[in-house]
Amino acid sequence: MAPNFTGVLKRHRPQERIDRKRDMNKSKRFFPNPATEDHLDSSVEEESTAMAYREPTTYDDLLASLGSSNKVVADINRRRKREEEGKSDTESDEDDEDEENIGSEDQSSTYGEDDEIQGADQESLLKYDDHSEQENSEYCETDEEHELSTNGQSLVAVSSSSTSSAFSEHLSHTLSCEEVETLPKGNWKFKWEAPAIGMPHCTWKGTRPDFLHVAHSDATYGIKPKLFKHWLQLYEKAGGEDFESSTRRRFFSLCNRYLDILHSNKRPFYNRGIGEDLSHMDAYLMHSLNHIFRTRDLVKKNESKIAKLSPAEILSDDGLRDQGFTRPKVLILLPLRSIAFRVVNRLIQLTPETLRVNVEHPRNFIYNFGCEDGSENDDHKKRSKPCDWQALFGEGNSDDDFMLGIKHTRKSIRLYDALDNPRKNIRLYDDFYSSDMIIASPMGLLLAIADAEENKERDVDYLSSIEILVIDHADVMSMQNWAHVALVVEQLNGLPSKQHGTDIKRIRPLYLDGHARFYRQSIILSSYLTPEINSLFNHHCLNYKGKMQLEHEYKGVLSKVVHSVDQIYERFDADSMIQVDHARLECFTNKIFPKIKDSVQGGVMIFVSSYFELVMLKMFLMSQKASFCVFDEHSNHKVKIRARQEFIAGSKKIMLYSERVYFLLGCNKIRGIKKLIMYSLPERKEYYPRIMNWIEESHDMESTVLYSRFDQFRLERIVGHANAKRMISKEKSTYVFR
């Protein structure tokens, strides 16, 4: 029966609202503090229904608690347990359940809307909008939707596409006891390798059976038709051809498999890779939009069912458990505001016009994330710096502290607008708890986490239900501070400290059981691989669907060294990563420093890749009373100028120079270098020939490079895959390149 005007303005009937409030009050104990997380992790729902006993889940406890004061709920819970044991009460009950399931499959989906808006007036307006939406065929889409049915089983409709149900298949999976036990250990074994199409010398490898032939030939892509049609139009309008074989289409197909992905060979926009960078950005943004809209479709479809059910009936249908602790489902980590500016603008472009009639707060966004005005003198200085630095830092806002909540909303200021034509907006600067997507920097989130630890009234519970994590330009973040990224990822998918208005009856079991981190998809994009990025991917990305990782065979950059420099590579041994720093310093003090200590000539530059190494060397040189100056990112402008002058004049024999200062400031050539010592290899391979070419031409140009087997990733990028393998495995410890 269609609701009247008064009924439309209410989310539920009055008695149902009272029952709901009572149920939520009784279930407050199911939002424990983090100290009880270990207990929740141990409550695992068994995959096999034939077993006689299994540990009760948090949801089972909830039903038992509610059943103690409600006979109907108790009867439903009893029947539910009998069904899980393979038993049934009557044949008619089974027939009724079958008819109910078939009805849930046939029901069409609609685009959903805000579920948690503060204020009674806003909630009423929203609910009115929802009913108007259901009755308006213009906003009702007959797209094939694969929702979660009762008992958490996936209802996969017959479809020619193998990926159209990837969303529901991924979230409907129930972890087995073995998976819950083995996933936290992170012991991944790659089972297959396949050439990466369109990427020479690159190979994909994965932990699950090879599916690339399916992903690369899928005709429907698993994307909502309205989104795909708009995406294809944008691609063709920009002059693109053969979308089927495009990079963005192939990478989207990989993302839509919901595996964890590590792509460590993406050419960034600031290194002459604008097209490739945009393709990967398109893929993960479209995957994120597809996930958000499919989630909202399922929620709204269930909303229409719930309006006709009693609280007891709601509890009996596991298919209505479609939410997390909080609303945000996608987190995109980016290093700089300028990059966030590009991503958000592209996100708006990828959203069909019917779903973004208006973008709210665009001026604030342009002001806070757009280009900064600079003087003509600043522009002249920027033009003298390397091209990659100009593209990354010189043409946009380089601030690294930001957070932005984005919500796809259907709200209207006036009630009659919502009745006649619900407006679909993209709201920037939305409250994080009501946002669909959060775009932030590691620094911005880290400060929010620290603030929540100091102020008990604040929290970061909006990170508790992230289902897709994207870390783009991870190489830039490694130059900032990778420890910030690791701390943020560790904070994801924890148990919230507050309820935040969540309807506990609709929370997925995977959240209540503390298994959300095993369902989170992590996509990491970088232009190169570091041990820290690799460690995060192996030990903190624990998706039960498995992993895919890209490997690349580098040719090296030795040929780009213009001068005839004797490049002497000295290998030192270390038993573990923990001992590398100490072993490197010991090698320098015993083999390298005695040769330059009493040098009258001077002009010795010592290049280090990290600030920690620079501090260690600085302390050592001070203990030896050596003549040196420091050129690093933490020194002010006057100190840098004085260091240059003293080094060129010879009053300081040694200069300590860090990779981070070159990356962050794009410094011009340092003159006066007669001998170069690379205390550690640079992470960015293009820096190696640039620094080598700074050496002043002479008949005995020489450089010394220290390395160990733990520097394999850097070594491969600089000397090539074959040379690196030989230099690490052979007994010989000294190698010379000219």
TrEMBL record:
Residue ranges constituting the UTP25 C-terminal domain according to the UniProt record: 558-737
Gene Ontology CC entries for this record: small-subunit processome
Compartments where found: Nucleus, Nucleolus
Ranges annotated as biased composition (Basic and acidic residues): 15-26
Pfam families linked: Utp25_C, UTP25_NTPase-like
Keywords: Nucleus
Ranges for domain UTP25 NTP hydrolase-like: 260-419, 423-548
Gene Ontology terms for molecular function: rRNA binding; U3 snoRNA binding
Chief localization: nucleus
GO terms (BP aspect): maturation of SSU-rRNA from tricistronic rRNA transcript (SSU-rRNA, 5.8S rRNA, LSU-rRNA)
Region of interest: Disordered: 1-115, 129-157
InterPro entries, A to Z: P-loop_NTPase, UTP25, UTP25_C, UTP25_NTPase-like
Signal peptide location: none
Comp. bias regions, Acidic residues: 91-103, 135-146
Record bears the keyword Hydrolase: no
PANTHER family linked to this entry: ORF PROTEIN-RELATED (PTHR12933), U3 SMALL NUCLEOLAR RNA-ASSOCIATED PROTEIN 25 HOMOLOG (PTHR12933:SF0)
Homology family: Belongs to the UTP25 family.
UniProt protein name: Digestive organ expansion factor-like protein
Organism of origin: Noccaea caerulescens
